[in-house]
């Protein structure tokens, strides 16, 4: 099976990558993996704990290793951490892994979601809405690297999953 049988879901924190990725995997009968979960299993710490104890640079190195490792998987839906796409090497690995679907949402919707989960989202801990917006804009520069961009802000996870599946079937 060709690596393009994989679906890679990227996007900013709070766009629904994991929730939607699990739905897509279930509907297509594929495996599901999340790069953050790979890192958590390896370190035996939550992403939040990793950031607090070891810092962002340590996490990004772990993330790069996880992205490199997933190049070996097939028939899988892969949800990448919100910052995976900021590293050009990660983007190249992800392109070799499968089609890249970028989930976006109106920044106001994303910020509202993230503020509800602030204790679980290390990069926004203690940040103002303006600071989160700045980070969002930096991360959105990765959309140009995606095969397709889908607005997940106002659609249900099920509707977004269906859009991903429709696109995937077109490119098979």
Please explain how this structure is put together.
The protein is of the alpha/beta class and 172 residues long. It has helices at 17-28, 35-43, 47-69, 88-97, 107-116, 129-139, 157-171, and strands at 6-11, 31-34, 76-79, 98-104, 148-151. Strands 2-3-1-4-5 form a 5-stranded parallel sheet. Helix 1 (17-28) packs across helix 7 (157-171) and helix 2 crosses helix 3 (47-69). The N and C termini lie close together (11 Å).
Q: What would you say about this model in short?
A:
This protein has 172 residues and is α/β, with parallel strands linked by helices. It has helices at residues 17-28, 35-43, 47-69, 88-97, 107-116, 129-139, 157-171; strands at residues 6-11, 31-34, 76-79, 98-104, 148-151. The radius of gyration is 15 Å and the shape is globular.
Unreliable stretches (pLDDT < 50, length at least 5) are none
**Care to count the β-strands?**
5
Helix-and-strand structural type: alpha/beta
The share of residues in helices is: 40-55%
Largest sheet: spatial strand order: 2-3-1-4-5
Content of β-strand = 5-15%
Return Rg in Å. Answer: 15 Å
- Write down the secondary-structure element order: EHEHHEHEHHEH
Distance between the termini: 11 Å
| Count of DSSP H/I helices | 7
**How is the main sheet built?**
5 strands, parallel
Shape: globular
In quaternary terms, these chains amount to single chain
Q: Would you tell me the overall average pLDDT?
A: 88
